[in-house]
């Protein structure tokens, strides 16, 4: 893959819990970016959100990290990073991206024995189509952050079932302006293993085998993670981004 | 689970290759049958079809059996059976069911262990919603066979995505007559891992990781199973049931 731009894919999210669907995003994105003929994917990062995000049913990051590590044991290019989850408060996606980009660039500059990497690797945000719709939720994103996430870094968006990411791009002037920085990946295998559904099944004592790795299922049972009580977590709490940021900024 | 009817679930199909979706059918069906309060599922059988079926892209049963065994290593109640695939010619579903029923009944009568089962276990055919539609393909099923498969044994049908098994039942007088022998299981997690899509991805050198177990993927690569050539297998061949059976029977 000589002459290609080295690329790292970063996925931010709850991973509550991680499922085969999450891991498929990486595989699909890598195949797609390779097929453009322009990129060479050199790494993948799963970055679970911190507990302060305030999402309903979010279990402690310690567990979400442990499960993600178990799940990714069999991957030779995707790993879990806890930087974001260890910060004191919820951290904007762009801040997480800047951290990882700086870290990757520093690694590149300090280590001269990377025969596979010809230039500083790029970093792009990997997400599902539902993520594209979050851009229009009032107060959830700062405009200048969207500019940086999409315009400076770039997005690789894997479409899920019937959700149409093209429409979300079309309906946003900001996203439309950066159309060339957004890579849309079509998932032909309908594999919508929603973590919400997985938690529901677990609460009801139903099987989730084959939706996530056995090691993760064992972990969940051992720690009795997903129950009626765990789903009540943050029931009346507002998502942190909505309280931290103001609309006029 | 005292007083419940012991039940074994049998899935017939190509398993070309087996995927997580196939294995999910068993898990979903077991949960559903338990929830009726009437049954206790005591076993599951995967019975890959014989090579004489003549389906396009069907790889030899030796491989399909090996992959299914690898995939089911982590299951404590579902196993693979090669009887059907070892028969000289393609075997009607009802014949396979009779074989397994007699086999299970014989085991029951021989073993006098009163702890495991109170009656002879029932045997039901486990299938996806697309299977229900096959009943109306001319020449594919004999009426008396459908009577026996559905009326004598019974079906557990897991609905896949947008396919509507109720409609297939409604549009068939025969199926409608045996409505109480058909258990419909709704799959809320949209997990349509079609083996056709998996083969397509493999042909194109794309990743299928997390759609099937790693052990099965390794096996496929080792034996270079799914290629342009393998998909051409049986291209001009008619499905065996259509040549074996005549419409007026």
UniProtKB/TrEMBL annotation, chain A:
It is an enzyme of class 2 (transferase). Its EC number is 2.7.7.1, 2.7.7.18. GO terms for biological process: NAD+ biosynthetic process. GO terms for molecular function: ATP binding; nicotinamide-nucleotide adenylyltransferase activity; nicotinate-nucleotide adenylyltransferase activity. Pathway: Cofactor biosynthesis; NAD(+) biosynthesis; deamido-NAD(+) from nicotinate D-ribonucleotide: step 1/1; Cofactor biosynthesis; NAD(+) biosynthesis; NAD(+) from nicotinamide D-ribonucleotide: step 1/1. Pfam families: CTP_transf_like. Its cofactor is Zn(2+); Mg(2+). InterPro entries: Cyt_trans-like, Euk_NMN_adenylyltrnsfrase, NadD/NMNAT, NMNAT_euk, Rossmann-like_a/b/a_fold. It is found in: Nucleus. Keywords: ATP-binding, Magnesium, NAD, Nucleotide-binding, Nucleotidyltransferase, Nucleus, Phosphoprotein, Pyridine nucleotide biosynthesis, Transferase, Zinc. Residues 10-200 form the Cytidyltransferase-like domain. GO terms for cellular component: mitochondrion; nucleus. It catalyses: beta-nicotinamide D-ribonucleotide + ATP + H(+) = diphosphate + NAD(+); nicotinate beta-D-ribonucleotide + ATP + H(+) = deamido-NAD(+) + diphosphate. CDD domains: NMNAT_Eukarya. Homohexamer. Interacts with ADPRT/PARP1. Belongs to the eukaryotic NMN adenylyltransferase family. This is Nicotinamide-nucleotide adenylyltransferase. The gene is nmnat3.
TrEMBL record, chain B:
InterPro entries: Cyt_trans-like (IPR004821), Euk_NMN_adenylyltrnsfrase (IPR051182), NadD/NMNAT (IPR005248), NMNAT_euk (IPR045094), Rossmann-like_a/b/a_fold (IPR014729). One of its GO terms (molecular function) is nicotinamide-nucleotide adenylyltransferase activity. The keyword Magnesium applies. Its cofactor is Zn(2+); Mg(2+). Its EC number is 2.7.7.1, 2.7.7.18. The keyword Magnesium applies. GO terms for biological process: NAD+ biosynthetic process. It is found in: Nucleus. Residues 10-200 form the Cytidyltransferase-like domain. It catalyses: beta-nicotinamide D-ribonucleotide + ATP + H(+) = diphosphate + NAD(+); nicotinate beta-D-ribonucleotide + ATP + H(+) = deamido-NAD(+) + diphosphate. Keywords: ATP-binding, Magnesium, NAD, Nucleotide-binding, Nucleotidyltransferase, Nucleus, Phosphoprotein, Pyridine nucleotide biosynthesis, Transferase, Zinc. Homohexamer. Interacts with ADPRT/PARP1. Belongs to the eukaryotic NMN adenylyltransferase family. This is Nicotinamide-nucleotide adenylyltransferase.
């Amino acid at each position: 893959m000589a002459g290609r731009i080295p690329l790292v894919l970063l996925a931010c999210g709850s991973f509550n819990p991680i499922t085969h669907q999450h891991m498929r995003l990486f595989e699909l994105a890598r195949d797609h970016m390779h097929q453009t003929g322009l990129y060479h994917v050199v790494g993948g990062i799963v970055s679970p959100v911190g507990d302060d995000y305030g999402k309903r049913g979010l279990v402690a990051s310690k567990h979400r990290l442990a499960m993600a590590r178990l799940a990714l044991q069999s991957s030779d290019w995707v790993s879990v990073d806890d930087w974001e989850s260890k910060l004191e408060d919820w951290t904007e996606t762009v801040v997480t991206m800047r951290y990882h980009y700086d870290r990757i660039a520093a690694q590149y500059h300090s280590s001269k024995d990377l025969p596979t990497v010809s230039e500083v690797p790029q970093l792009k945000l990997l997400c599902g189509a539902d993520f594209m719709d979050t851009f229009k939720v009032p107060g959830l994103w700062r405009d200048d952050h969207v500019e940086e996430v999409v315009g400076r870094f770039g997005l690789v968006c894997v479409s899920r079932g019937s959700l149409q990411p093209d429409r979300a791009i079309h309906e946003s002037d900001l996203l439309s302006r950066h159309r060339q920085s957004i890579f849309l990946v079509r998932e032909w295998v309908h594999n919508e293993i929603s973590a919400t559904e997985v938690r529901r099944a677990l609460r009801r004592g139903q099987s989730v085998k084959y939706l996530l790795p056995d090691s993760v299922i064992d972990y969940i049972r051992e720690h009795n993670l997903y129950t009626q009580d765990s789903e009540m977590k943050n029931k009346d709490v507002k998502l942190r981004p909505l309280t931290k940021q103001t609309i006029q900024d």
